[in-house]
């Protein structure tokens, strides 16, 4: 099993990892709080939330299995070499657990709050159903030979696939509405920062080990950061450039009326003569 060659790089790795965890974890709360305050999820694409739950569930299975299972770790070392480090850190597992919980809460808000005319599309339901059926088939294929590393790599691939497609419904919805109202930009800003620090963490580990196996040995984590950053940039452009929130316009006539005194001078003089 590989160990760190540089203590400063190890510390930097831990700091970046937990910074990514905090940023990504907090990123779920602006949307949950916004839904709670509005008592509505109008503007939040329901397909996005459903696909996101499948994505984070798959990622949790991958992270927890590789981090806790000695059998899977052994298969990893046999494939990539005992001189390599496991590409999953404690913060990855903690983030996945938290992400599944908060996404489930958001899904519950969709059930209890006003949705307007929005509903989950049949396409999203079909995709999610197909993904879990595919995962179940892969489990039974892996079972006879205990090909657990191959199996969790399937879950890793699933989470990458879901990451790619989950943002599309929300981005398209913003485009058709020409608005980002109801979709929290705070979520995107924190997600963007988390993606950068997560990517930085992987770079630090690769520099210390003198090998870039960390990237293609955990291609899911690599693509997760890149795809998330790409769509975060799209959402920021939509929110701040393409469809900025318009301030309420007040008519000049209304402004003039507000400037007028409650009691006119002529009325005041008449009242004195009475």
Write a brief structural summary.
The protein is an all-alpha fold.
Describe what this molecule looks like in 3D.
Helix 3 runs antiparallel to helix 7. The radius of gyration is 25 Å and the shape is globular. The longest helix has 30 residues, at 148-177. It has helices at residues 7-26, 29-38, 46-68, 70-80, 90-112, 122-142, 148-177, 185-209, 213-216, 219-242, 252-259, 265-273. It is mostly helical.
Write the layout of secondary structure elements.
Layout: H1 7-26, H2 29-38, H3 46-68, H4 70-80, H5 90-112, H6 122-142, H7 148-177, H8 185-209, H9 213-216, H10 219-242, H11 252-259, H12 265-273
Helix pairs in contact: 1-5, 1-8, 2-5, 3-5, 3-6, 3-7, 6-7, 7-10, 8-10
Evaluate the radius of gyration. Answer: 25 Å
Number of strands: 0
End-to-end CA span: 100 Å
* Relative helix content: over 70%
| Uncertain spans | 247-255
Helix-strand sequence = HHHHHHHHHHHH
Largest sheet: none
Structure class: mainly alpha
Note the beta-strand portion.
under 5%
Quick check: average pLDDT?
85
Based on Cα principal axes, name the global outline.
globular
Counted by DSSP, the helix tally is 12
Which key terms come to mind for this protein?
274 residues, mainly alpha, globular
